[in-house]
Amino acid sequence: MTVSALTRPGERDRLTVKLAEIDWLFCFVLCLIAGTGALMMFSIAGSSWQPWAANHLIKFSIFFALMVCLAMVDMRVWFAAAYPIYGLGLFLLVAVALIGEVHLGARRWLNLGPLGSFQPSEIMKLGLVLALGRFYHSISAQGARLSWWLLVPAAMIGVPVVLIAHQPDLGTAILLSLTGLSVVVLAGLAWRIIVIGVLMVVAAVPPMVLFVLHDYQRDRILTFLSPEKDPSGSGYHILQSKIALGSGGFLGKGYGLGSQSQLNFLPEKQTDFIFATLAEEFGFVGCLSVLVLYGAVIFLALQAASRTHSHFGRLSAAGVTATFTFYVLINGAMVMGLAPVVGVPMPLLSYGGTVMLSVMIGFGLVQSSRVHRYSEVTSGKGALL
Amino acid sequence: MSEPSIFFSEVNQRQGVFHRRAFLFGGLAGIGMAALGGRLAYLQLLEASRYEKLSVSNQFNFRLTPPPRGVIVDRNGVVLATNRPNFRLMIARDDSARPYETLKSLAQFVPLNDARQTRLVRELKQAPRGTPIPVLDDLSWEQFSSINIRAPELPGVTADMGEVRVYPHGGAFAHVIGYVAKVNKDDLAPTGPNSEQIMLHPGFRIGRQGVEKAFDLDLRGRPGAQKVEVDARGREVRQLPGGDIPATAGREIKLTLDADIQTRAMEVFGEESGAAVMMDCRSGDILCMYSAPSFDANKFVRGLTSPEYRALSQYDRKPLFNKAITATYPPGSTFKTMVALAALSAGIDPAQTRVCNGAWAWGGRIWHCDKHHGVMDMHSAIVTSCDIYFYQTALAIGPDKIAEAARSFGLGQIFDIGIPGQKAGLVPDPAYKRRTFKRDPVWHPGETPSMGIGQGYTNVNALQLCVMVARLANGDKALHPRLIESIGGVQQPSGAIAEELPFPKAHIAFVRSAMASVTETGTAAATAQLGLGSLKMAGKTGTAQSHTYREGERTSRSLAWALKDHAWFVAFAPYDDPRYAISVLVEHGGFGATAAAPRAREIMRVALLKDPQLRSRIEQPTPMPDIPDQPADGAAPEDPTPITQPPSSSTNPGAAL
Questions:
Q1: What CATH number should be reported for the domain whose range is B63-95+104-255?
Q2: Does B348 have pLDDT greater than 80?
Q3: 3-class state of residue B546 by DSSP
């Protein structure tokens, strides 16, 4: 394809052109990660496609198709849908606080009858990014840097975070606030506010831990600080995960030979701790390879975001990338014993449909911003709202 | 927003800020990833060996395997206690499993009634997690294999092959050897050998009585370990035969007992209550130690039901009681040998005679004898067991001399034979009375005649009387009884390493000759004939009162069992070359000559017939005729030399026996 061809009016709206504009290298890396996940699930199920590996691959295929479809969606549609999605997420969070299902002591799930139950916080991950993008799209650089307007994004982040933290779902609340704050920072928040904010957070953590958190949340953090104190109780997860990782060594114990995961010493081995399974069976080499793949995803997504002309596209795509990045970093740190155990999975590698769905929808947005990088979301006649 | 409220420079500025910040974000994300990579390198490269060890200790467990318990054999190597394979079924608590359902499905393959199931569920709840409890023993091979095949459907259930203790002779050795039983809480002392882990194994048994108890640590052996791969729940995934540490079997214990003699003792007692002890009177080895009635030790291994236990413990003949060492009785007239010896060493002339009129008035009482013996010297008084003679002789020499003789022959003593439960009994003397009776610390003269006939305070057990006869028969050494010949091949000190008896040999020979006359012409002449040719047994009867009779009660034939006299017979044989000494007690058996002596005779016959040297004396074979030398190397033999047949066996007195 030539540049000249794409400059022709209407040429960029053709489906084949749009499909070609998708970052297929990015897609390939996603497939590699999901495939690795399925490989590990096959191993820990005792060389069986059931119950996880096949399911994982099927879900990934569906969501991959969904991502491609969403990549075709015009940025103006995303722009128009930003506030409604955020509003819907907020509504559902309030609804879950009122009528949600209590499961394992947390009110996180909304029962959708035959469709099963889902967590509205997943919608909010996308909604928040979109809404912040749309908001920052309409204010000036100075406004984004330091102005009273910033109270709006503060509220946009604060309200859902408080609702989710109240469920309680500390992991998602932290993830959501980190995502939102990333967008705020990327939009150009003044450095002194950033510095003050960081200092305040650091100062606020100890009293938070002591007074606000639930007992089990506090235990997790205290356990993280000294897992050896209670190796069979609350320190069990961290300790077993570290044993799995460390015993993997340089090349790993071999595929299907990880004693920690095969013999169930490793808890949540197919979900939150799948990285430890990988580390045990494929060792340092395997882990580093997967980390490189994740790095590539983040790099390519950020690249797509940076090349987008619309401020909304840039910010929302970067926000989605930030969510993904935090997933990887938090899960990695947790598995390696650098962070307390919070229920954050390794995206695409871990088994579990909800997170994969929200991540793939987010990547749909990223690819959409890449495909539609030249479109201007607020040019008069093209505006949907 | 159709108005261009944001100017171009504004747009550029926003873009520039975003690019810088996105670059920064990417950099921070990169640093984060690098940190993870660094952490990985630390864990997987630097600390790998440490976590490798932790992982292995997670993965593998050593499961203790109980060692085979040491075998107990008799002096000839006949097995008295051994182990046999046992297919058993065990169930362990497992949090994923519901034991009741598991037991229900288990009941399809093995007999398990509802009551047993309920009891097992209760036991399971009390058992520590992961510790299996036994469900059934002695499965058939069909049951064993059907359970093993269905193991995946039966969580927590294991069927394995263990060993169970078995006593091939049933009750014959029950009191000496004892039995093994399950470990109970009291056994699990917090320290010492009984705190070993293996004791928690469901197949482990601990010695409860006799040799099994006394030598439990020797018999126990050292447990082995089986390397097994376990999952996080501690369930066994598979066994790794390469990593096994074999168990060391317990030591073999060889007893001095002889299974044939012991079995014969059991036979001759039948349902009578009593005890028989036989010793080799040259070495001190105990050849027989039987207490009647006995019980089947195998039932104790399996575990007695409470009705079974009640039946044993409440039976008035006390089968659980080792009457050979634990019960003491007045020795009765068997004690007269000691009185005679004491009298001889006190200088009393054995030819001095006393007159027996069947009764003797002394000290305000009438002292009875069982008949009118007439004029008695010491020899005839022993032979006829004349009480009057010994009343008077005892009075003449005093209790201290008698006690001294009795003690030097082992009465009133506890011997180190290895097994617990001996009662010392009592040889009384004035010092004992001073020590024991604070209100009446005086030895009354009237107590001496009683002592002279082995009544009164005098109390001995069957082992002591056997030692007494063995020492008399030996005539030289104060033999010690020995029950344990060797432990794990290590010989135990012989009982013949002993001091000299502090009595002149002539005196002992006098008593022995009197004992020989007892079985020839005396009280036991009718019942103590061995019938083994020239082999003769020398002995002494004893009939000990078990209580004080009312007037005329003793002659009553319809006396209740528990009121009858205890019958004693002590003997040694052959008289001319003593080898075996025996004491037989028949509790409430009546007369020593009729109840105890025939039993002693039968037991003695087995010992004599088994003795290869004596057997030759019994059989008196004709010397072998000389056979000419065979021609040298390989030359065909000439006509076979006619071998003179030995005389037909009917001329051989021993063969008919």
A1: 3.90.1310.10
A2: yes
A3: coil
